[in-house]
Amino acid sequence: xxxxxxxxxxxxxxxxxxxxxxxxxxxxxxxxxxxxxxxxxxxxxxxxxxxxxxxxxxxxxxxxxxxxxxxxxxxxxxxxxxxxxxxxxxxxxxxxxxxxxxxxxxxxxxxxxxxxxxxxxxxxxxxxxxxxxxxxxxxxxxxxxxxxxxxxxxxxxxxxxxxxxxxxxxxxxxxxxxxxxxxxxxxxxxxxxxxxxxxxxxxxxxxxxxxxxxxxxxxxxxxxxxxxxxxxxxxxxxxxxxxxxxxxxxxxxxxxxxxxxxxxxxxxxxxxxxxxxxxxxxxxxxxxxxxxxxxxxxxxxxxxxxxxxxxxxxxxxxxxxxxxxxxxxxxxxxxxxxxxxxxxxxxxxxxxxxxxxxxxxxxxxxxxxxxxxxxxxxxxxxxxxxxxxxxxxxxxxxxx
Length: 400
Fold this sequence. Notes:
The protein is of the alpha/beta class.
C-alpha cells in the first residue's frame, strides 16, 4: 500500500487558544525550511492537524527530519480515501494483506470526526473487521496488543488509514518564544541547555569567549561544531566569538586569586547582556546546574548575575550530571564536548575558587579594572559566523 500523506499532530499547540494560529503558522514555516530538500512535498497546516502531501518523495528520508522538528507530538504515514464504503473496505483489506504474517492478529480502531457519516465507530469497526476476515480467514482478532492495529479516522475531508504512530520531538515551534543568547562554552552542559531552550520555542544565538593564544583554534572550532549540532533543531544559528584575552589577563593581574572565577564570569555575563541588547534578545541562557562547580553555587550565581539586566534562563539548574550527559548523548553533542581542548573558564582557574563570594567584595575587586574600556574593546572586535545544519561558513559582518 502506497502511503500518500504524513499526518502531523500538534499536541501542546491545541491549548494555545487565540494564539494557536500563530503557533501553527510558525510550525508550518519551520517544516518548509526542514523539508527544502523535498520540493514536491506540500504542507497543509490546519487547526488540529498538519498534513504533508508526499507527492512521490521518499518518506523514509523525510521521517528522520520530522523527528527533530519541535512542535510535533507525533505523526503517522497515512492513506487518505474518500468517504465511500466500498473504497474504504478495499483499502483496509489491502493494508492488512500487505502487513500480514503467519499467526498475526489484528484489530480495527475507528474514530469519527464527521458525525454525519453513515456508520458510527462500532459499526465501522464491525464492517471493516468483517471485510478483513473474509479476505484473510486465517487472521485472528485480538483486542489487546494486536500485531496490527489498523486505525481509521473519518474526518471532514476524507477517511485516513494508518497502522503506526511515530513519536515527535514535542515542545513548541522554534521562533514562537522569542530570541535568547546562549553562553556556549566547549563543555557538556551549555549545548544541552541550548537544546532545551530551543525545544521550548526559543530561537538562539550563541556567544563564545575565546582567549588566544591561551585557547587554541581547535577549541574555537569545537564550539562551532557544537553549535552546528544544535542547528539540526534550530535551522541556523549566529555564532558570536568574543575576544577575551585582554580581559582575562587584566583580571589575573589585579584580582585576588579566590575571586578570579567570580570576576571572570561577571565580565562574561556583562558582555553577553550588552550583546543581547544590541541583538534585541529577551533573555540569556546558560548551562549552570546548582552546585556543579564553584561558580554555580547559589551564592556564586547571585553574585555573578548582579551585572545582568535580563532574565537568565538555566534549563539544567536542577539536573544531575548523569542526566545532562544522557541528554548530550541523545543530541550527539557529548563526543564533541569531551574533546580535550581548553576553554576560557579553565585556563586561569584558581586552585581554590570562592564558593560563597561576597557581592560587595566582588564589586570592589571589579572596580580595579577598566570595565567600560575592556567591555567596549570586546564588543568592537566581535567576530560573527552564520552556522547552518549543512554548512559552517564564517561571515565577518556588522550585525551590531
